[in-house]
Specification:
The chain has 331 residues and is of the alpha/beta class. It is built from 11 helices and 12 strands.
């Protein structure tokens, strides 16, 4: 029957695989979209159909969209560094444009678009909420700018063409199946291996990836078209996060707190090495610029309107470390 398929993009990835599994568990008939070059580690026990498509290709996206009544666009070029930073912006805009245009043509009845808290400005007075929308010019780095550009595209399509989209803004997911791993997953792995002897005065909002996946389901069922909802967990200082990791793996925690400014020459050198080797550096200029802020957020709107809830961040760290160990990434 037409319209009975739930289409999910990016299911080979960390968050997309979690969203797909949660939707399948709800009884939905799921179809996952992956690139031909996507790693297959998260697809071995995928609970549905898999199709290959380049999400920048309108024809391929239209073929994948056939029979879909629900769409979860989770896929993104999630890199904080690239040899050509504008490639990240081009990719995320092109994918979002092609996927949303196909959804409109196919008459999909509900769209959940996975944005990011990267599209929101930190609030010096406390945790930021959904009202602090950034402009592309205010975003730090190519990745954040790409997500702002893509989110504004979705908002225009809602207002001008009636796209039935709800926007969700995950904070910093951690947990199992982080195969790449993500930038935050890299911090967890490095810290658990004892390779982060120092830290800067920064902070982030940590949330279990499976809680974010549940938030996607709630957004589809209870969210208001055109609204955005932060899907976060707990605000945590970076130093406390590293101490918690040390407790879990029974290592001595780092005690040296470094100022951010003197690290910029090291980041510049790391990026120069990345351009020569093609490997993403662990320390980047944009990551240091972000570290100047405590990236704290509140999920009060999602809790109030969707019934969203998140477990303590320590449980998310434990699950992440257990998975990384099982995958041989923490030795």
């Amino acid at each position: 029957m037409d319209g009975d398929v739930t289409l999910i993009t990016g299911v080979a990835g960390f968050l997309g695989s979690a969203v797909a599994r949660r939707l399948a568990a709800s009884g939905r008939r799921v179809r996952g979209v992956v690139r031909a070059s996507s790693p297959r580690g998260n697809l071995a026990d995928f609970p549905g159909e898999i199709v290959e498509a380049d999400l920048r290709d309108p024809a391929a996206v239209a073929a994948a969209m056939r029979g879909a009544g629900e769409l979860f666009h989770v896929a993104a070029d999630y890199r904080l560094w690239a040899r050509d930073p504008e490639e990240i912006v081009r990719n995320n805009h092109a994918m979002t444009e092609a996927v949303m245009a196909a959804a409109l043509r196919a008459g999909v009845r509900r769209v959940v678009y996975t944005s990011s808290v990267a599209t929101l400005l930190p609030d010096p007075a406390g945790p930021a909420d959904e009202t602090r929308a950034a402009t592309p010019e205010q975003a730090t780095g190519a990745y954040k700018r790409s997500k702002v550009v893509a989110e504004r595209l979705v908002e225009r399509l809602v207002a001008e063409q009636g796209l039935p989209a709800v926007i969700v803004n995950p904070s910093t997911p951690i947990g199992p199946r982080d195969v790449r791993p993500t930038p935050t997953g890299r911090i967890v792995v490095e810290a658990a291996m004892g390779k982060m002897p120092a830290f800067v005065d920064s902070g982030l909002n940590l949330v279990h990836v499976d809680d974010v996946a549940q938030g996607h389901l709630l957004a589809a069922e209870r969210g208001k078209v055109g609204e955005r909802y932060i899907l976060g967990g707990q605000d945590v200082a970076l130093g406390e996060m590293l101490r918690q990791i040390a407790r879990i793996v029974r290592r001595r925690p780092p005690t040296v707190e470094l100022p951010v400014t003197p690290l910029f020459p090291l980041a510049w050198l790391a990026e120069l090495g990345g351009k020569l080797t093609g490997r993403e550096p662990f320390l980047t200029l944009d990551s240091l610029r972000m570290a100047r802020h405590h990236m704290f957020y509140t999920s009060a709107k999602a809790e109030r309107e969707l019934g969203y809830a998140a477990r303590p961040y320590g449980a998310a760290l434990e699950d992440a470390i257990a998975w990384f160990r099982g995958a041989g990434m923490i030795r």
